[in-house]
Design brief:
The complex is a heterodimer of chains A (about 575) and B (about 280). Chain A is α/β, with parallel strands linked by helices. Chain A is about 35% helix and about 20% strand. Chain A is built from 21 helices and 23 strands. In chain A, strand 19, helix 18 and strand 20 form a beta-alpha-beta unit. The radius of gyration of chain A is 26 Å and the shape is globular. Chain B has a single domain, classed as Thiamin diphosphate (ThDP)-binding fold, Pyr/PP domains (Rossmann fold), CATH 3.40.50.970. Helices cover about 30% and strands about 15% of the residues of chain B. Chain B is built from ten helices and ten strands. The chains are: A alpha/beta (about 575), B alpha/beta (about 280). At the A-B interface, strand 9, helix 8, helix 10, helix 12 and strand 17 of A face strand 2, helix 2, helix 4 and helix 10 of B. Strand 17 of chain A pairs parallel with strand 2 of chain B, so a sheet runs across the interface. The structure holds thiamine diphosphate and iron/sulfur cluster (SF4).
Chain lengths: ~575, ~280
Amino acid sequence: MKINNFNWKIGGPAGFGVMSSGLMFAKACSRAGLFIHDYSEYPSLIRGGHNTYQVYVSEKQVHSQRKIVDLLVALNEQSIIEHLDELVKGSGVICDSAKVLFDKKSLKKKGIMLFDVPFNKIAKEVGGDEIMRNTVTLGATMALTKHDFKYLEKIINDQFSDKDKSIASQNIKAARAGFDFIKENYNIDSFDFFLQAQNNKPQMVVTANDTIALGALNAGCKFYAAYPMTPASSILHTLAARGPKHGMVVRHAEDEISVINMAQGASTAGVRSMVATSGGGFALMMEGFSLAGITETALVVVEVMRSGPATGLPTWTDQGDLKFVLGAGHGEFDRVIFAPGDQEEAFYLTELAFNITEIIQSPVIVLSDKYISESHLSIPFFDTKKIGIDRGKILTETEAKKLGDKYKRYQLTKDGISPRALPGQEGVRIFLNSDEHDEMGYSEESIQNRLDQVAKRAKKIKAAGKLLPPAKLYGDKTAKITLVGWGSVKGPILDAMQNQDLKKKVNYVHFPMVAPLPANTKNILAKSKKIVLIETNSQAQFADVLRAGTGIEVDHKILRFDGRPFYQSELVKEINKI
Amino acid sequence: MKKPNDFNTTHEPTWCPGCGNFGLWGAFKQALAELDIPRHKIFGSYGIGCSSNGANFTKINVFHGLHGRPLPVAEGVKMANHDLTVIALGGDGDGFGEGGNHFMHACRANHDIAYFVHDNQIYGLTTGQTSPTSAKGIKSKSNPLGAIDRPVNPIALALSLGATFVARGFTGDIPHLAKLMKAAIKHKGFGFVDILQPCFTFNKHNTHQYFRERVYKLAGNDTSDFDKAQKLAREWDREDKIPLGIFFQNESEPVFHEQLPQLTKETLIKKKLPVNLKPDFQSYI
Ligand SMILES: Cc1ncc(C[n+]2csc(CCOP(=O)(O)OP(=O)(O)O)c2C)c(N)n1
Ligand code: SF4
């Protein structure tokens, strides 16, 4: 009997509601006090193609998806063919043999249980439309896992709350029919998986794009500009929907060049501003990013990586932009790059990014990727007071007025950071200049001035000092093998470390920031006997970054660069080989 | 009341003697003085070019940004603080070449900003290459055999894109140009003025003399008549006569920020930073 440890997957063509059913099932579980991680795969198409959505459910906090599927909902034949190797003895398949042709015998031979549900017919008869076939399969899933139907009913009601009431009630009928069909035609106890509600705090089911958006809102960000690009687009959608009621202006501008310049206009006027894009859009932003460096404009830039080069694999994950982002923008100024490891880190790091960018008056990057930005994790509500708001050396109206004509936007100070007045404040003139400039802002090319301004900009990062996130050690300090990773590899690594098949003693050093390298980098790796870098790119880019920053060489690399994230089981296999 | 020279900075202009930018600068300062807006409430967003070097010589709030990008910066400033009077300035290469896409979308967005293009029909700061408004056949460093492309017609372009204020000025007539600039700044919406600004050093074709012989001031034209405006916009191409003045104005079109409900009560910069996210968290359950 397997209680509260269950991996579910639904597959079908785009347009079949794979994504919405996946999220509904995830929530039907998390609302029952269970923990979920979900992961979806889809090609860059609107219709056709093969979409999948998998939800791993557990009674403990989970961090990543799992390979072996316990129950597969196959909306088409391809779903069975493509995922047959993920099914094992005892796994189940829900399919509609009236519509799907496949080799039933080979499934039986593997010990896979077949639940033949005429979901197309049921959807049409009960719901009135075949489109509800996915809802029928959700009902069937609830029956097979002995999960309380009320969780599904509630989520369906919520899902369609903004639509005509009949839509929710038809969907509930369809789900109920799927639920009843299983109960009437199969012995549900023969399927050995049970989902039982637990008493837990309410949990959000969120992607890192959701939490980046929420983090920005909590930081008091009031201006967001973007041009749609997968996998960053859902930040735009979320903020366009939620931002205005928090006073935010969201602008879908004509291109990414406009986006980054416009956001600097808003920031110059005194508003906390953010932009987000993926690699291609960020490439277009390069000159504007550099502009923020020399004009000393506060700005949070989110880059959600997908596989490049160029259009690459638009809907697949990758950490291949690391060096590109490290070198973003021409000219010299300090790059600050946060790399959230999961959906929770993404919230707090985004918030922190707003403080850091205003403290050092230089842009800050939040580097995410498709994997965490589109995968949901169940997490408790965030502590909205944890980070707080620090606007740095921004002047009040009275302070500005006092300075009057003496005000210098680029005043040379001890820490390199100059007081920041805002346009509209009486008495002062704000002069931001992309030319090298003197303290007042005037274009100035003399030798001493150039040396002074370069030195000034170089000093500023120190003011961020202790606020910057350190590298973090997970697991036993004395382990012989130290896994090293940054950003989204965190989840699969943490799960691999808990995996019973892991034969080696390992710990993990996680980098939530890749530039500058955390101050404790050398220390935390000082005792490591064997360093194993885990990264989703082909060139092990972080190995170079680590060597350049600390002289530390990694001993072994585990890389994946086929657009897919690591699975804990694969990591375990690779680590065991070391 | 301010005087134009109140807008001088400690820095003297660095333009070539005889450059049309002097006239443009003079007219701009006169317009600002006459508008009598407190200096700290004026924001100039400049691109990069000879034209945009005016950032150093004009005592208003200034963002001297990138080549081609004064418009997005101006729009960002305006959305963040619509109490400010925001003016974008740049060259013809800046506005119709590098920043062409921004011009197209600024016209249709109708932000309440003014946009002054120093149109010298040449790239000045990079020492004389063909610009998007260079006449066909004009020889330059980048097209020694003469420009193959036909020039952009900024007036016709702005009209076709839905700009709500479209005017042409000439740096050789400062009082008239100042009047146009004032009207553009006062205009509720996107106030576009294409300004004929002879480049003494690199444009040997479109000289002061050239313009003197061709310009005339529009008088009594119905600026609400879009079709007539379109016809007038073509006059320079067809008849070698160059009308100056307001071609078209429409103030019935709502401006961008007024269509954002969150900005009806206060400017964006006045919003309180802390928000209550509890309902949002709740909705993710
Ligand atoms: C991205 C970029 N490309 C090229 C340049 C070089 N550049 C500076 S000004 C300029 C053109 C100037 O022509 P225009 O915009 O018409 O202004 P003018 O100097 O004539 O006033 C160019 C190409 C630059 N600064 N940035
Ligand atoms: S190069 Fe032309 S536009 Fe530039 S300052 Fe000289 S005359 Fe004026």
